[in-house]
Amino acid sequence: xxxxxxxxxxxxxxxxxxxxxxxxxxxxxxxxxxxxxxxxxxxxxxxxxxxxxxxxxxxxxxxxxxxxxxxxxxxxxxxxxxxxxxxxxxxxxxxxxxxxxxxxx
Length: 105
What we know:
- The chain has a domain at about 55-105.
- The protein has helices at about 10-20, 30-45, 55-70, 70-90.
- It has 4 helices and no strands.
- By secondary structure, it is mostly helical.
């Protein structure tokens, strides 16, 4: 039972695959490492964001940062990072450094 239509190019790829016409890269591991490095470098960039917060929340964030002894921007970035990393921590079984202590400062 077919649930979708293949394009002309997809049909050609399927035929070539079935006929064993596809060939791998001569140095597959080297290519995988190169593209993995490309992905890491593009994902590790730090970007600036602008967000609107209620003034009360900003004061609380600044107060909490003073209590912990770090700049409030660092605290905000840490909170956002931990929130964004939570699914990865669940999937990885909490064996990454930022997953070991999920409690916020």
